[in-house]
Amino acid sequence: MFVDPRPPSVASADHAARGALTIADLDKSFTIGGEPRRVLDNINLSVKAGEFVSIVGASGCGKSTLLRLIVGLDADYSGEIRLDGNRIASTSLDRGIVFQDHRLFPWMTLAQNIELALLNTDTPKERRAQIVADHIALVNLKGFEQAYPHQLSGGMAQRAAIARALVTEPKLLLLDEPLGALDALTRVHVQNELQRIWMAQRSTVLMVTHDVEEALYLGDRVVIMAPDPGRIRRIVDVDLAHPRDRGAPLLHRLKDEILAELTAAPADPANLVRLPGREDRR
Amino acid sequence: MTARAPLAALTAPLALLALWQLAALSGVFPTQVLVPPADVAETLWSLARSGELERHIGESLFRLGLGYLIGAVAGLAFGACIALSRLAEAALAPAFLAVWQVPVIAFVPVLVIFLGIDEPFKIAIVALATFFPVALATFDGIRGVPKAWFEVARVYRTRIPDLILRILVPATVPAVLTGMRVALTRSWVVLVAAELLAADSGIGQMMEMGRQMFRIDVVLAGVVVSGVIGFALDRGAKAIEHRATRWKYA
Protein backbone atom coordinates (compact mmCIF):
# COMPACT_ATOMS: atom_id res chain seq x y z
CA MET A 1 0.00 0.00 0.00
CA PHE A 2 1.30 3.37 -0.99
CA VAL A 3 0.34 6.19 1.30
CA ASP A 4 1.73 9.62 0.71
CA PRO A 5 2.63 10.92 4.17
CA ARG A 6 2.09 14.50 3.00
CA PRO A 7 -1.29 15.80 4.14
CA PRO A 8 -3.38 16.70 1.11
CA SER A 9 -3.88 20.29 2.12
CA VAL A 10 -0.18 21.15 1.95
CA ALA A 11 -0.38 21.46 -1.81
CA SER A 12 -2.87 24.26 -1.43
CA ALA A 13 -1.02 26.22 1.21
CA ASP A 14 -0.63 29.17 -1.14
CA HIS A 15 -4.41 29.44 -1.20
CA ALA A 16 -4.56 29.68 2.56
CA ALA A 17 -6.60 32.88 2.61
CA ARG A 18 -8.97 31.70 -0.10
CA GLY A 19 -12.05 29.67 0.53
CA ALA A 20 -11.93 28.70 4.18
CA LEU A 21 -15.46 27.84 5.26
CA THR A 22 -16.64 27.86 8.85
CA ILE A 23 -20.07 26.71 9.90
CA ALA A 24 -20.93 27.27 13.55
CA ASP A 25 -24.07 26.29 15.49
CA LEU A 26 -26.13 26.21 12.32
CA ASP A 27 -29.84 25.46 12.68
CA LYS A 28 -32.42 25.51 9.93
CA SER A 29 -36.16 24.89 10.11
CA PHE A 30 -38.86 24.78 7.49
CA THR A 31 -42.50 25.42 8.18
CA ILE A 32 -44.46 22.46 6.91
CA GLY A 33 -48.23 22.57 7.28
CA GLY A 34 -47.94 25.37 9.84
CA GLU A 35 -45.54 23.35 12.00
CA PRO A 36 -41.88 24.30 12.22
CA ARG A 37 -39.76 21.33 11.31
CA ARG A 38 -36.06 21.27 12.02
CA VAL A 39 -34.04 20.06 9.06
CA LEU A 40 -30.54 20.98 10.23
CA ASP A 41 -29.55 20.77 13.85
CA ASN A 42 -26.42 22.26 15.35
CA ILE A 43 -24.09 21.85 12.40
CA ASN A 44 -20.44 22.69 13.12
CA LEU A 45 -17.88 22.24 10.41
CA SER A 46 -14.63 23.88 9.34
CA VAL A 47 -13.34 23.39 5.85
CA LYS A 48 -9.81 24.54 5.14
CA ALA A 49 -8.96 26.47 2.01
CA GLY A 50 -8.29 24.09 -0.83
CA GLU A 51 -9.77 21.11 0.95
CA PHE A 52 -12.16 18.65 -0.67
CA VAL A 53 -14.87 17.60 1.76
CA SER A 54 -17.59 15.08 0.91
CA ILE A 55 -20.89 14.85 2.72
CA VAL A 56 -22.79 11.55 2.76
CA GLY A 57 -26.00 10.60 4.44
CA ALA A 58 -29.43 9.12 3.91
CA SER A 59 -31.89 11.13 1.88
CA GLY A 60 -33.70 13.67 4.02
CA CYS A 61 -30.70 14.38 6.21
CA GLY A 62 -30.62 17.98 4.98
CA LYS A 63 -27.42 17.79 2.97
CA SER A 64 -28.87 19.61 -0.04
CA THR A 65 -30.43 22.20 2.25
CA LEU A 66 -27.01 22.77 3.77
CA LEU A 67 -25.53 23.48 0.33
CA ARG A 68 -28.38 25.86 -0.53
CA LEU A 69 -27.61 27.80 2.64
CA ILE A 70 -23.90 27.92 1.87
CA VAL A 71 -24.39 29.05 -1.72
CA GLY A 72 -26.74 31.75 -0.44
CA LEU A 73 -30.03 30.77 -2.11
CA ASP A 74 -31.63 30.67 1.32
CA ALA A 75 -30.54 33.18 3.95
CA ASP A 76 -33.09 32.12 6.54
CA TYR A 77 -31.00 30.25 9.12
CA SER A 78 -29.65 30.70 12.57
CA GLY A 79 -26.01 30.33 13.46
CA GLU A 80 -23.04 31.28 11.36
CA ILE A 81 -21.83 30.37 7.92
CA ARG A 82 -18.67 32.25 7.06
CA LEU A 83 -16.44 32.16 4.02
CA ASP A 84 -13.03 33.66 4.82
CA GLY A 85 -14.65 35.36 7.78
CA ASN A 86 -17.57 36.94 5.90
CA ARG A 87 -21.05 35.88 6.91
CA ILE A 88 -23.05 34.44 4.02
CA ALA A 89 -26.36 36.20 3.43
CA SER A 90 -26.90 35.90 -0.32
CA THR A 91 -25.34 34.46 -3.44
CA SER A 92 -21.92 35.59 -4.56
CA LEU A 93 -19.54 34.87 -7.41
CA ASP A 94 -17.14 33.65 -4.70
CA ARG A 95 -19.24 30.52 -4.49
CA GLY A 96 -20.14 28.27 -7.40
CA ILE A 97 -22.58 25.39 -7.37
CA VAL A 98 -23.30 22.39 -9.58
CA PHE A 99 -26.77 20.94 -9.14
CA GLN A 100 -27.79 17.35 -9.68
CA ASP A 101 -29.63 18.38 -12.84
CA HIS A 102 -27.16 20.28 -14.98
CA ARG A 103 -29.46 23.32 -15.30
CA LEU A 104 -27.93 24.46 -18.55
CA PHE A 105 -30.26 26.68 -20.57
CA PRO A 106 -31.53 24.66 -23.55
CA TRP A 107 -31.57 27.61 -25.96
CA MET A 108 -27.94 28.52 -25.35
CA THR A 109 -24.94 26.77 -26.80
CA LEU A 110 -22.40 25.27 -24.43
CA ALA A 111 -20.17 28.34 -24.80
CA GLN A 112 -23.09 30.73 -24.23
CA ASN A 113 -24.16 28.80 -21.15
CA ILE A 114 -20.71 29.10 -19.64
CA GLU A 115 -20.35 32.73 -20.64
CA LEU A 116 -23.60 33.51 -18.80
CA ALA A 117 -21.73 33.11 -15.52
CA LEU A 118 -19.38 35.91 -16.55
CA LEU A 119 -22.07 38.45 -17.50
CA ASN A 120 -22.04 40.20 -14.15
CA THR A 121 -18.27 40.30 -13.75
CA ASP A 122 -15.88 43.03 -14.76
CA THR A 123 -14.05 40.61 -17.05
CA PRO A 124 -13.41 42.51 -20.31
CA LYS A 125 -15.52 41.24 -23.19
CA GLU A 126 -12.53 40.20 -25.28
CA ARG A 127 -11.10 38.13 -22.38
CA ARG A 128 -14.36 36.27 -21.83
CA ALA A 129 -14.17 34.11 -24.94
CA GLN A 130 -10.69 33.01 -23.95
CA ILE A 131 -11.73 32.18 -20.37
CA VAL A 132 -14.74 30.23 -21.63
CA ALA A 133 -12.55 28.34 -24.10
CA ASP A 134 -10.03 27.53 -21.35
CA HIS A 135 -12.74 26.11 -19.11
CA ILE A 136 -14.28 24.09 -21.91
CA ALA A 137 -10.84 22.63 -22.45
CA LEU A 138 -10.47 22.03 -18.70
CA VAL A 139 -13.53 19.76 -18.67
CA ASN A 140 -12.47 18.09 -21.94
CA LEU A 141 -15.34 19.40 -24.04
CA LYS A 142 -13.27 21.02 -26.77
CA GLY A 143 -15.13 20.84 -30.06
CA PHE A 144 -18.56 21.07 -28.43
CA GLU A 145 -18.58 24.85 -27.94
CA GLN A 146 -21.50 25.33 -30.33
CA ALA A 147 -23.50 22.28 -29.19
CA TYR A 148 -26.84 22.73 -27.46
CA PRO A 149 -27.39 20.94 -24.13
CA HIS A 150 -29.77 18.38 -25.64
CA GLN A 151 -26.99 17.33 -28.00
CA LEU A 152 -24.71 16.47 -25.08
CA SER A 153 -24.75 13.22 -23.14
CA GLY A 154 -25.57 13.34 -19.43
CA GLY A 155 -21.92 13.17 -18.44
CA MET A 156 -20.93 15.89 -20.91
CA ALA A 157 -23.73 18.18 -19.74
CA GLN A 158 -22.65 17.70 -16.15
CA ARG A 159 -19.05 18.51 -17.06
CA ALA A 160 -20.33 21.63 -18.83
CA ALA A 161 -22.16 22.59 -15.63
CA ILE A 162 -18.90 22.11 -13.73
CA ALA A 163 -17.13 24.39 -16.22
CA ARG A 164 -19.84 27.02 -15.76
CA ALA A 165 -19.46 26.83 -11.99
CA LEU A 166 -15.67 27.20 -12.24
CA VAL A 167 -15.52 29.96 -14.81
CA THR A 168 -15.86 32.73 -12.22
CA GLU A 169 -13.00 31.12 -10.27
CA PRO A 170 -15.01 30.70 -7.09
CA LYS A 171 -13.15 30.26 -3.83
CA LEU A 172 -15.64 27.59 -2.88
CA LEU A 173 -17.22 25.07 -5.22
CA LEU A 174 -20.37 23.31 -4.04
CA LEU A 175 -21.42 20.08 -5.70
CA ASP A 176 -24.95 18.89 -4.98
CA GLU A 177 -25.00 15.22 -6.02
CA PRO A 178 -23.54 16.29 -9.34
CA LEU A 179 -23.14 12.73 -10.56
CA GLY A 180 -26.33 11.33 -9.06
CA ALA A 181 -28.16 11.13 -12.39
CA LEU A 182 -25.32 9.48 -14.31
CA ASP A 183 -24.88 5.81 -15.12
CA ALA A 184 -22.20 3.88 -13.26
CA LEU A 185 -19.52 4.01 -15.97
CA THR A 186 -20.01 7.70 -16.71
CA ARG A 187 -19.88 8.36 -12.99
CA VAL A 188 -16.46 6.80 -12.65
CA HIS A 189 -15.26 8.79 -15.64
CA VAL A 190 -16.57 12.13 -14.33
CA GLN A 191 -15.20 11.34 -10.85
CA ASN A 192 -11.75 11.02 -12.40
CA GLU A 193 -12.34 14.28 -14.24
CA LEU A 194 -13.44 15.99 -11.04
CA GLN A 195 -10.32 14.84 -9.26
CA ARG A 196 -8.13 16.05 -12.10
CA ILE A 197 -9.95 19.43 -12.28
CA TRP A 198 -9.75 19.91 -8.55
CA MET A 199 -6.04 19.13 -8.53
CA ALA A 200 -5.57 21.71 -11.28
CA GLN A 201 -7.74 24.37 -9.61
CA ARG A 202 -7.38 23.66 -5.93
CA SER A 203 -10.42 25.60 -4.89
CA THR A 204 -12.24 24.48 -1.78
CA VAL A 205 -14.86 21.88 -2.66
CA LEU A 206 -17.85 20.68 -0.68
CA MET A 207 -19.60 17.78 -2.37
CA VAL A 208 -22.86 16.18 -1.33
CA THR A 209 -23.35 12.64 -2.52
CA HIS A 210 -25.11 9.45 -1.51
CA ASP A 211 -22.34 7.32 -2.96
CA VAL A 212 -19.92 6.41 -0.17
CA GLU A 213 -17.27 5.20 -2.59
CA GLU A 214 -17.39 8.49 -4.48
CA ALA A 215 -17.22 10.45 -1.24
CA LEU A 216 -14.10 8.55 -0.17
CA TYR A 217 -12.42 8.58 -3.56
CA LEU A 218 -12.61 12.36 -3.85
CA GLY A 219 -12.77 13.70 -0.30
CA ASP A 220 -9.94 14.65 2.02
CA ARG A 221 -12.59 14.21 4.68
CA VAL A 222 -16.01 12.61 4.62
CA VAL A 223 -18.78 14.08 6.74
CA ILE A 224 -21.43 11.54 7.67
CA MET A 225 -24.82 13.04 8.34
CA ALA A 226 -27.82 11.55 10.11
CA PRO A 227 -31.45 12.46 9.37
CA ASP A 228 -34.41 13.72 11.43
CA PRO A 229 -33.18 16.32 12.10
CA GLY A 230 -30.14 16.57 9.86
CA ARG A 231 -26.95 16.61 11.86
CA ILE A 232 -23.33 15.57 11.62
CA ARG A 233 -22.77 12.14 13.05
CA ARG A 234 -19.13 11.69 12.33
CA ILE A 235 -16.27 13.06 10.26
CA VAL A 236 -13.82 10.62 8.70
CA ASP A 237 -10.33 11.57 7.55
CA VAL A 238 -9.15 10.05 4.33
CA ASP A 239 -5.41 10.24 4.69
CA LEU A 240 -4.46 9.48 1.14
CA ALA A 241 -2.82 11.76 -1.39
CA HIS A 242 -4.42 12.66 -4.71
CA PRO A 243 -4.55 11.37 -7.37
CA ARG A 244 -5.92 8.29 -5.71
CA ASP A 245 -6.07 4.68 -6.66
CA ARG A 246 -9.59 3.30 -6.47
CA GLY A 247 -8.19 0.00 -5.26
CA ALA A 248 -6.43 1.50 -2.24
CA PRO A 249 -7.15 -0.77 0.74
CA LEU A 250 -7.72 2.25 2.98
CA LEU A 251 -10.62 3.39 0.80
CA HIS A 252 -12.20 -0.05 0.97
CA ARG A 253 -11.78 -0.35 4.70
CA LEU A 254 -13.30 3.08 5.27
CA LYS A 255 -16.11 2.29 2.86
CA ASP A 256 -17.08 -0.83 4.79
CA GLU A 257 -16.88 1.11 8.02
CA ILE A 258 -19.05 3.98 6.80
CA LEU A 259 -21.59 1.72 5.12
CA ALA A 260 -21.90 -0.30 8.29
CA GLU A 261 -22.48 2.86 10.22
CA LEU A 262 -25.04 4.20 7.77
CA THR A 263 -26.99 0.98 7.38
CA ALA A 264 -26.89 0.01 11.03
CA ALA A 265 -28.50 3.32 11.88
CA PRO A 266 -31.58 2.56 13.92
CA ALA A 267 -34.69 4.10 12.46
CA ASP A 268 -35.93 5.04 15.91
CA PRO A 269 -34.55 8.52 16.68
CA ALA A 270 -34.60 7.64 20.41
CA ASN A 271 -31.74 5.22 19.79
CA LEU A 272 -29.71 7.79 17.93
CA VAL A 273 -29.08 9.96 20.94
CA ARG A 274 -26.73 7.37 22.35
CA LEU A 275 -24.45 7.66 19.35
CA PRO A 276 -21.83 10.39 19.35
CA GLY A 277 -23.37 13.45 17.73
CA ARG A 278 -20.16 14.72 16.25
CA GLU A 279 -16.75 13.34 16.18
CA ASP A 280 -13.90 15.01 14.43
CA ARG A 281 -11.10 12.53 14.62
CA ARG A 282 -8.61 15.05 13.41
CA MET B 1 -38.57 15.37 -43.96
CA THR B 2 -38.01 12.86 -46.73
CA ALA B 3 -38.57 13.62 -50.40
CA ARG B 4 -41.63 11.39 -50.39
CA ALA B 5 -43.37 13.24 -47.56
CA PRO B 6 -44.89 16.05 -49.73
CA LEU B 7 -46.23 13.42 -52.14
CA ALA B 8 -47.72 11.46 -49.24
CA ALA B 9 -49.39 14.62 -47.97
CA LEU B 10 -51.12 14.99 -51.35
CA THR B 11 -52.81 11.59 -51.30
CA ALA B 12 -55.60 12.50 -48.90
CA PRO B 13 -56.72 15.67 -50.77
CA LEU B 14 -56.51 13.82 -54.10
CA ALA B 15 -58.56 10.93 -52.75
CA LEU B 16 -61.13 13.39 -51.43
CA LEU B 17 -61.25 15.09 -54.83
CA ALA B 18 -61.74 11.75 -56.57
CA LEU B 19 -64.53 10.82 -54.16
CA TRP B 20 -66.20 14.19 -54.73
CA GLN B 21 -65.97 13.74 -58.51
CA LEU B 22 -67.39 10.20 -58.26
CA ALA B 23 -70.29 11.37 -56.08
CA ALA B 24 -71.03 14.17 -58.54
CA LEU B 25 -70.95 11.71 -61.49
CA SER B 26 -73.22 9.21 -59.72
CA GLY B 27 -76.13 11.61 -60.23
CA VAL B 28 -77.59 11.10 -56.74
CA PHE B 29 -77.61 14.88 -56.26
CA PRO B 30 -78.36 17.44 -58.96
CA THR B 31 -75.18 19.14 -60.20
CA GLN B 32 -76.44 22.51 -58.93
CA VAL B 33 -76.31 21.09 -55.39
CA LEU B 34 -73.25 18.89 -55.60
CA VAL B 35 -71.13 20.85 -58.03
CA PRO B 36 -68.37 18.75 -59.60
CA PRO B 37 -64.81 19.79 -58.71
CA ALA B 38 -64.01 20.82 -62.27
CA ASP B 39 -66.86 23.36 -62.23
CA VAL B 40 -65.69 24.75 -58.91
CA ALA B 41 -62.20 25.09 -60.34
CA GLU B 42 -63.62 26.92 -63.31
CA THR B 43 -65.59 29.29 -61.05
CA LEU B 44 -62.44 29.89 -58.99
CA TRP B 45 -60.53 30.70 -62.13
CA SER B 46 -63.12 33.19 -63.38
CA LEU B 47 -63.38 34.78 -59.93
CA ALA B 48 -59.62 35.13 -59.91
CA ARG B 49 -59.51 36.59 -63.42
CA SER B 50 -62.19 39.16 -62.70
CA GLY B 51 -60.21 40.34 -59.67
CA GLU B 52 -63.20 39.68 -57.44
CA LEU B 53 -61.45 36.89 -55.54
CA GLU B 54 -58.38 39.03 -55.00
CA ARG B 55 -60.54 41.84 -53.60
CA HIS B 56 -62.34 39.54 -51.16
CA ILE B 57 -59.13 37.86 -50.01
CA GLY B 58 -57.45 41.23 -49.63
CA GLU B 59 -60.29 42.60 -47.50
CA SER B 60 -60.34 39.49 -45.30
CA LEU B 61 -56.57 39.39 -44.83
CA PHE B 62 -56.46 43.08 -43.96
CA ARG B 63 -59.03 42.56 -41.21
CA LEU B 64 -57.18 39.49 -40.03
CA GLY B 65 -53.85 41.31 -39.95
CA LEU B 66 -55.03 44.38 -38.10
CA GLY B 67 -57.29 42.52 -35.68
CA TYR B 68 -54.60 39.94 -35.00
CA LEU B 69 -52.00 42.60 -34.29
CA ILE B 70 -54.29 44.35 -31.79
CA GLY B 71 -55.39 41.10 -30.15
CA ALA B 72 -51.88 39.67 -29.93
CA VAL B 73 -50.35 42.80 -28.40
CA ALA B 74 -53.21 43.08 -25.90
CA GLY B 75 -53.01 39.35 -25.14
CA LEU B 76 -49.27 39.48 -24.57
CA ALA B 77 -49.59 42.47 -22.26
CA PHE B 78 -52.51 41.02 -20.34
CA GLY B 79 -50.98 37.56 -20.04
CA ALA B 80 -47.68 38.98 -18.81
CA CYS B 81 -49.52 41.22 -16.37
CA ILE B 82 -51.51 38.44 -14.67
CA ALA B 83 -48.48 36.13 -14.72
CA LEU B 84 -46.16 38.61 -13.05
CA SER B 85 -48.54 40.17 -10.51
CA ARG B 86 -50.38 38.03 -7.99
CA LEU B 87 -52.73 40.93 -7.36
CA ALA B 88 -53.59 41.31 -11.05
CA GLU B 89 -54.09 37.55 -11.24
CA ALA B 90 -56.45 37.52 -8.28
CA ALA B 91 -58.43 40.46 -9.65
CA LEU B 92 -58.57 39.60 -13.34
CA ALA B 93 -57.97 35.89 -13.90
CA PRO B 94 -61.40 34.54 -12.84
CA ALA B 95 -63.30 36.95 -15.09
CA PHE B 96 -60.85 36.25 -17.89
CA LEU B 97 -61.28 32.50 -17.56
CA ALA B 98 -65.07 32.84 -17.46
CA VAL B 99 -65.21 34.96 -20.63
CA TRP B 100 -62.72 32.56 -22.26
CA GLN B 101 -65.39 29.84 -22.05
CA VAL B 102 -67.78 31.84 -24.26
CA PRO B 103 -67.45 30.96 -27.96
CA VAL B 104 -66.08 34.07 -29.66
CA ILE B 105 -68.79 33.87 -32.32
CA ALA B 106 -71.37 34.41 -29.55
CA PHE B 107 -70.08 37.98 -29.22
CA VAL B 108 -71.18 38.75 -32.79
CA PRO B 109 -74.67 40.07 -31.92
CA VAL B 110 -73.36 42.35 -29.18
CA LEU B 111 -70.50 43.63 -31.32
CA VAL B 112 -72.83 44.29 -34.23
CA ILE B 113 -75.09 46.36 -31.98
CA PHE B 114 -72.17 48.50 -30.78
CA LEU B 115 -69.95 48.60 -33.83
CA GLY B 116 -72.30 48.00 -36.74
CA ILE B 117 -71.31 45.57 -39.48
CA ASP B 118 -68.45 47.58 -40.91
CA GLU B 119 -64.72 47.20 -40.48
CA PRO B 120 -64.48 47.93 -36.73
CA PHE B 121 -66.77 44.99 -35.96
CA LYS B 122 -64.74 42.51 -38.00
CA ILE B 123 -61.45 43.78 -36.65
CA ALA B 124 -62.84 43.60 -33.12
CA ILE B 125 -63.99 40.00 -33.51
CA VAL B 126 -60.56 38.98 -34.82
CA ALA B 127 -58.84 40.83 -31.99
CA LEU B 128 -61.09 39.08 -29.49
CA ALA B 129 -60.44 35.65 -31.01
CA THR B 130 -56.71 36.34 -30.88
CA PHE B 131 -56.58 37.88 -27.43
CA PHE B 132 -57.64 34.84 -25.38
CA PRO B 133 -55.28 32.14 -26.68
CA VAL B 134 -52.35 34.56 -26.70
CA ALA B 135 -53.05 35.81 -23.16
CA LEU B 136 -53.44 32.28 -21.84
CA ALA B 137 -50.27 31.03 -23.57
CA THR B 138 -48.29 34.00 -22.28
CA PHE B 139 -49.54 33.42 -18.75
CA ASP B 140 -48.72 29.71 -18.86
CA GLY B 141 -45.40 30.40 -20.55
CA ILE B 142 -44.19 32.83 -17.91
CA ARG B 143 -45.55 30.82 -14.99
CA GLY B 144 -43.97 27.70 -16.44
CA VAL B 145 -40.41 29.03 -16.23
CA PRO B 146 -38.77 26.59 -13.79
CA LYS B 147 -37.70 27.97 -10.43
CA ALA B 148 -34.40 26.20 -11.01
CA TRP B 149 -33.52 28.66 -13.77
CA PHE B 150 -34.15 31.65 -11.54
CA GLU B 151 -31.82 30.02 -9.02
CA VAL B 152 -29.09 29.72 -11.64
CA ALA B 153 -29.54 33.43 -12.39
CA ARG B 154 -29.29 34.20 -8.68
CA VAL B 155 -26.14 32.11 -8.27
CA TYR B 156 -24.44 34.03 -11.09
CA ARG B 157 -25.99 37.31 -9.95
CA THR B 158 -27.40 37.87 -13.42
CA ARG B 159 -28.66 41.45 -13.75
CA ILE B 160 -32.35 42.08 -14.37
CA PRO B 161 -32.02 43.10 -18.06
CA ASP B 162 -29.95 39.99 -18.78
CA LEU B 163 -32.37 37.88 -16.77
CA ILE B 164 -35.27 39.13 -18.88
CA LEU B 165 -33.60 39.07 -22.29
CA ARG B 166 -31.45 35.99 -22.00
CA ILE B 167 -33.51 33.77 -19.71
CA LEU B 168 -37.14 34.85 -19.27
CA VAL B 169 -37.91 35.71 -22.89
CA PRO B 170 -36.27 32.66 -24.48
CA ALA B 171 -37.88 30.44 -21.83
CA THR B 172 -41.31 31.86 -22.62
CA VAL B 173 -41.06 32.18 -26.39
CA PRO B 174 -41.95 28.58 -27.38
CA ALA B 175 -45.20 28.57 -25.40
CA VAL B 176 -46.15 32.07 -26.54
CA LEU B 177 -45.48 31.29 -30.20
CA THR B 178 -47.61 28.16 -30.03
CA GLY B 179 -50.39 30.24 -28.53
CA MET B 180 -49.98 32.85 -31.26
CA ARG B 181 -50.15 30.21 -33.97
CA VAL B 182 -53.31 28.70 -32.50
CA ALA B 183 -54.75 32.20 -32.23
CA LEU B 184 -53.98 32.93 -35.87
CA THR B 185 -55.85 29.95 -37.32
CA ARG B 186 -58.64 30.36 -34.78
CA SER B 187 -59.17 34.01 -35.61
CA TRP B 188 -59.20 33.19 -39.33
CA VAL B 189 -62.04 30.71 -38.76
CA VAL B 190 -63.91 33.24 -36.62
CA LEU B 191 -63.43 35.98 -39.22
CA VAL B 192 -64.85 33.89 -42.07
CA ALA B 193 -67.78 32.90 -39.87
CA ALA B 194 -68.40 36.53 -38.91
CA GLU B 195 -68.27 37.56 -42.58
CA LEU B 196 -70.87 34.90 -43.34
CA LEU B 197 -73.16 36.47 -40.76
CA ALA B 198 -72.65 40.13 -41.39
CA ALA B 199 -70.43 41.75 -44.00
CA ASP B 200 -70.37 43.53 -47.31
CA SER B 201 -67.12 42.01 -48.52
CA GLY B 202 -64.60 39.32 -47.72
CA ILE B 203 -64.37 35.59 -48.35
CA GLY B 204 -67.23 34.80 -45.97
CA GLN B 205 -69.47 37.39 -47.59
CA MET B 206 -68.62 36.02 -51.05
CA MET B 207 -69.82 32.60 -49.87
CA GLU B 208 -72.94 34.02 -48.28
CA MET B 209 -73.83 35.89 -51.51
CA GLY B 210 -73.26 32.68 -53.46
CA ARG B 211 -75.61 30.82 -51.13
CA GLN B 212 -78.32 33.45 -51.46
CA MET B 213 -78.09 33.33 -55.26
CA PHE B 214 -77.88 29.53 -55.18
CA ARG B 215 -74.40 29.60 -56.69
CA ILE B 216 -73.10 26.58 -54.77
CA ASP B 217 -70.00 26.64 -56.99
CA VAL B 218 -69.11 30.03 -55.50
CA VAL B 219 -69.80 28.72 -51.99
CA LEU B 220 -67.52 25.75 -52.56
CA ALA B 221 -64.87 27.96 -54.12
CA GLY B 222 -64.99 29.99 -50.89
CA VAL B 223 -64.63 26.79 -48.86
CA VAL B 224 -61.55 25.81 -50.84
CA VAL B 225 -60.00 29.28 -50.62
CA SER B 226 -60.59 29.73 -46.88
CA GLY B 227 -59.24 26.23 -46.26
CA VAL B 228 -56.11 26.89 -48.29
CA ILE B 229 -55.54 30.26 -46.60
CA GLY B 230 -56.03 28.75 -43.13
CA PHE B 231 -53.59 25.98 -44.00
CA ALA B 232 -51.05 28.47 -45.37
CA LEU B 233 -51.36 30.65 -42.24
CA ASP B 234 -50.76 27.65 -39.99
CA ARG B 235 -47.77 26.52 -42.06
CA GLY B 236 -46.30 30.02 -42.11
CA ALA B 237 -46.73 30.38 -38.36
CA LYS B 238 -45.17 26.96 -37.82
CA ALA B 239 -42.17 27.96 -39.92
CA ILE B 240 -41.70 31.09 -37.78
CA GLU B 241 -42.08 29.02 -34.62
CA HIS B 242 -39.52 26.55 -35.91
CA ARG B 243 -37.07 29.32 -36.74
CA ALA B 244 -37.47 30.99 -33.35
CA THR B 245 -36.84 27.72 -31.50
CA ARG B 246 -34.10 26.48 -33.83
CA TRP B 247 -32.01 25.25 -30.90
CA LYS B 248 -34.54 22.44 -30.38
CA TYR B 249 -33.83 20.97 -33.77
CA ALA B 250 -30.10 21.57 -33.92
Task: Please provide a brief summary of the model.
The complex is a heterodimer of chains A (282) and B (250). With 282 residues, chain A is α/β, with parallel strands linked by helices.
Low-confidence stretches of chain B: none
- Within the CATH hierarchy, at the fold level, what is the topology of chain B? MetI-like fold
Fourth CATH level, the homologous superfamily of chain B: MetI-like
Structural category of chain B is mainly alpha
Portion of residues in helices of chain A? 25-40%
Q: What's the CATH superfamily of the largest domain in chain A, by name? A: P-loop containing nucleotide triphosphate hydrolases
Q: What amount of the residues of chain B lies in strands? A: under 5%
Overall tally of domains of chain B: 1
Any chance you could write out the topology, listing elements then pairs?
The complex is a heterodimer of chains A (282) and B (250).
Chain A: E1 21-32, E2 35-47, E3 52-57, H1 63-71, E4 78-83, E5 86-87, E6 95-98, H2 110-116, H3 125-138, H4 154-166, E7 172-176, H5 184-201, E8 204-208, H6 212-218, E9 221-226, E10 231-237, H7 249-263, H8 269-272
Parallel strand pairs in A: 3-8, 3-9, 6-7, 7-8
Antiparallel strand pairs in A: 1-2, 1-4, 4-5, 9-10
Chain B: H1 5-26, H2 37-50, H3 52-84, H4 86-100, H5 108-115, H6 119-143, H7 147-155, H8 160-197, H9 203-212, H10 216-244
Helix pairs in contact in B: 2-10, 3-4, 3-6, 3-8, 3-9, 5-6, 6-8, 8-9, 8-10, 9-10
